[in-house]
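Hey,

Quick one before I head out. I ran the complex with S-adenosylmethionine overnight. Inputs first:
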Amino acid sequence: MTPGTLYLVATPIGNLDDITYRAVKILSAVDLIAAEDTRRTKILLDHYIISKPMVSYFSFNERQRTPELIERLIQGQSIAVVSDAGTPGISDPAFYLVRAAIAKSIPIVPIPGASAFISALIVSGLPTERFVFEGFLPQKKGRKTKFELLRTETRTIILYESPHRVLKTLTEIATYFGDRQVVVARELTKKFEEIVRGAVSSVIRELSGKSTRGEYVLVIEGATRLTE
Ligand code: SAM
């Protein structure tokens, strides 16, 4: 039997209009949608009047769910995997499914679109010709080591951060890296989109005392010269 195709479908990071025609076509055509956040994906599907069976596929159930999805693909079903927002596989569990599909020679097709880190980088004004995407920093173990390693990184550094840790992380950036230029990109493409640029000390001052609700990308100037 010919296996089905696994489609990695990028979805909007906020504004529901930020989806490609092709993504809408694929979501309308597949047998099943594996979604990181089924409630958020349902809003998107309803907006585009797409009605499809959905299963949840998120960190913590990905190891258990992967064999089940691979079996369906082997049986000839086509599956679209979507992140809660943005591009599947970027700081989300789609990676495991991709690895498992490769191992079974299942065709995998990317359907490109939005990703929060690319939008933050292009709007940052920091050098874009070379950059390093670090995703979420380790929360405890390995965090200090990571900051020490990144201190001498000369490329622009991009991090994902949660709202309740953003000020703490900015303070650590100031401690480990000095008063570098940073850009805090909040709620990109959404109603309360905000881009704060400046030296990390001034950005901390600007954000302190304000609500930090929302989703964040931090873009940090690379080291201008190696310090050791
Ligand atoms: N796969 C997604 C992508 O391609 O960007 C990222 C998934 S990751 C689990 C979620 C993180 O992405 C959030 O915690 C935040 O750091 C960032 N993010 C997602 N949407 C965002 C937005 N609209 N504005 C700023 N950051 C966003």
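The radius of gyration is 19 Å.

Talk tomorrow,
K.
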